[in-house]
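tool_call predict_complex ligand=xanthosine-5'-monophosphate
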Amino acid sequence: RLLIVDFGSQVTQLIARRLRELNVYCEIHPFQNVTRDFLSDFAPRAVILSGGPASVPDDGSPRPPAEIFDLGVPVLGICYGQQVMQHMLGGEVKRGEGTAEFGRAYVTPKAKLELLEGWFDGLEATGREQVWMSHGDHVSRLAPGFEVYGTSPNAPYAITADTERHFYAVQFHPEVHHTPKGARLYENFVRLAGFSGDWTMGAYREQAIAAIREQVGDAKVICGLSGGVDSSVAAVLIHEAIGDQLTCVFVDHGLLRQGEAEEVVTMFRDHYNMPLIHADEQDLFLSALEGVSDPETKRKTIGRLFIDVFQKHAGEVGGAEFLAQGTLYPDVIESVSFSGGPSVTIKSHHNVGGLPEKMGLKLVEPLRELFKDEVRALGRELGLPRSFIGRHPFPGPGLAIRCPGEITREKLAILRKADAVYIDQIRRHGLYDEIWQAFVAILPVRTVGVMGDGRTYDYACALRAVTSVDGMTADYYPFTHEFLGETATRIINEVKGINRVTYDITSKPPGTIEWE
Ligand code: XMP
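tool_result ok
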């Protein structure tokens, strides 16, 4: 296994991700925990020293134990890791004065190095490769045994190595996407360290299960199940680890799609045999929403009631000590890097962030290290149905925000039917997986139509379908006119209450994905 010593960089987890992509097993440990004893227990086959915010010349700046360089295994230092390595092995690091580099930079090769195999290929024209830098300090004198293999304008020692001892040190961040060939560098490093790349999601599952058992012991855990991919994968994984010590709470707020509640209950209760509380609170939510048409008031009403209801039902379990959440790694980075920044509330997101403190519960977050596509891979590994894993995201406030204006049961019933026809159309045409999210919004206007020989006065609806990578920006999906025409005809024929269909061609920004 490979040890990543974390000095606090924002992107340390990305190193782990790159290694998982190479099917190499690694563990991240904060530098404080990496002691001499730890090292001899862990017995890593290779070590990576991460970046970090500290400055090597400062008193008390973090260091790994010196023994890390006596293990006889390859070591790769990145950014701060590179500087600390140079410093400890006899080089010198200077505080940045006019030598800082943030963002894109270009490295020019100086000599051949196994770590860089294939790295500078195809660069004959420019002779340089793009990398991502983020440093103030820089190495000013190399440690004995090291040579320079690449330079950038502000980092004369951008790539250095002691090939005898297999120590490699780079100033840039090979783990980020803006270093396009960074993955190649990791691939070469793990090959040099002798990893065969046979570690899999199956192994991750075993390891995550062991970690959950250790954290939870014989305590009880509750988990809010939304029917979405993240909470479902988290629940199945935790159930596999601790069985009936886990109880799931599924809140049905009456704003779910057609057949959704039954599907969730059948799958988790009948198929997975999990203790599941099906909190049917439709009346509570729908009566609280009566007469409410302001989007923020709707969102806040739903959020507040959700917390109350969840708390009430979770209380039925009695004596739970943990709350399980399907937090993903991007949620973790975002909350770190954007904390405290001035930002405007566009929409109050429905989340249960305040729940653990309110209920005095500790958190179990087994997906914290994973990205969305890795959660899907883990879901497949756990045997969750394909249709479930590939599902489009669905917002916490559900259909409420797809029903601009006042919500009524009648409108919700119409919306559910129209949405089911639309999604069926998309699936029939094999487009579901190309689209990030697709849904129908029922509009608060009625329009006049003619069907058969009669006049109709029914609701209009809007179809929405977008492509996106992360939901932050989005573009509308370019359906063919034929598809749109066929879908409109089906909705009008099959859904009583709708006599007009429109297609929303707004991107985000300026629009948002949901209508409210
Ligand atoms: P917007 O409408 O802001 O949506 O462009 C971006 C993505 O977030 C989803 N969304 C939510 N998800 N709670 C959620 O869990 C919410 O309150 C919420 N509001 C929007 C939306 O479906 C899209 O995927």
